[in-house]
């Protein structure tokens, strides 16, 4: 049975369009998420003023969305197998649109958090289920190229978001950042119904792991919100209690998963070297990647005193660099191999954001823009490598479980990155007794998250020298 499933993609399947078409349509849904996230980041200072809270406190508006992703992504594969990937994918777009409309109607931070949680319920299914459709319909030899095509619309979303957010905040009202999701979502819904074929899942004989799902949800939720509360001096005891409860729930899940045949998150996948190393090293790098879109808009608008429009223009550079990297990612991986590329580029990607700690308001615009272009290119290359080599040795019948596991850790560590950025800001503000974060506070935050991502070098070096050669076409000299 396993051999038949592995060889199935090699058999001609006229029902499926060209892999580029599927990749671009899935990428359009990710485009919707990226526009929303990057536009929101630019608008955080304006939203903080309207909600009468400090700018670092707005991090909960970001982490609440990412929390919903982390909680629901583990069940995305099960839901897609049970109800059909196409149906689940389209339903997630509809829920995301509804959550966006509710976000635009909020008038307080708690209301915004509730609406963002609903929005995250839709977003939790879009990217992982879309990636699952690609993994099940694209031959392995086309996987690197397919992932690149998928990320192209996503990169365009991150490019359009910052300047669009800056324009909306400066000339309109921040609520319009959620209304723009509606026409984009409707277009994506139609494209999926019109061009995406029915993708059959793998039958599951075991009952759904409700206990494991409850432990995972409780553990991740308590852990992330505990980190959010940790920076509030009046609620340190509550924060520590939530963190302890979350850690206990996750430890209980580890114990439970070892005794379950079909757990909601299959920890036995970590025995696959390329998958485990991609998870560990990618998680450390994503702390920096998660902190960056939260810290940069605040640095430009509060630390350096730039306008929202100017801030959006500078953040656009990160997306531009990521787009440029897509043009040579496959070629470099073919030339030097995954291991060597991840070792050296991982250092460059980490140090790139350390440069942000030294930005000054009198620096030329072109210099800061150029440095951020490099940051985006290095990080984009690194995550393209992670997202591909992680699945190299995963059997076809475990792709759904691996996809859910990997996507969950990806969103979780982005959330941890936001929490770390906010926590460092709050701590340094308390030490300096600042009402608003200063440029020094931002410098400390960037240096600390950079140091965290640099530790991933040890795990990059642990990859086998021939890791990913089948995917990239690289031949060891």
Primary descriptors:
477 residues, disordered N terminus, single chain
Question: Helix and strand layout, with pairings?
Answer:
Blueprint: H1 2-7, H2 19-51, H3 59-72, H4 76-83, H5 85-104, H6 109-137, H7 143-171, H8 176-179, H9 181-195, H10 210-230, H11 236-257, H12 273-303, H13 308-326, H14 329-336, H15 338-354, H16 365-389, H17 399-432, H18 439-454, H19 457-461, H20 469-472
Helix pairs in contact: 2-6, 2-7, 2-9, 2-12, 3-6, 3-10, 3-17, 4-5, 5-6, 5-9, 6-17, 7-13, 10-11, 10-17, 12-13, 12-16, 12-17, 12-18, 13-16, 14-15, 15-16, 15-18, 17-18
Task: Explain this structure.
The protein is built from 20 helices and no strands. By secondary structure, the protein is mainly α. The N terminus is likely disordered.
Could you give a quick summary of the protein structure above?
The protein is mainly alpha-helical and about 475 residues long. It has helices at about 1-5, 20-50, 60-70, 75-85, 85-105, 110-135, 145-170, 175-180, 180-195, 210-230, 235-255, 275-305, 310-325, 330-335, 340-355, 365-390, 400-430, 440-455, 455-460, 470.
Mean pLDDT: 78
The share of residues in helices is over 70%
Structural Rg = 21 Å
Low-confidence stretches: 1-16
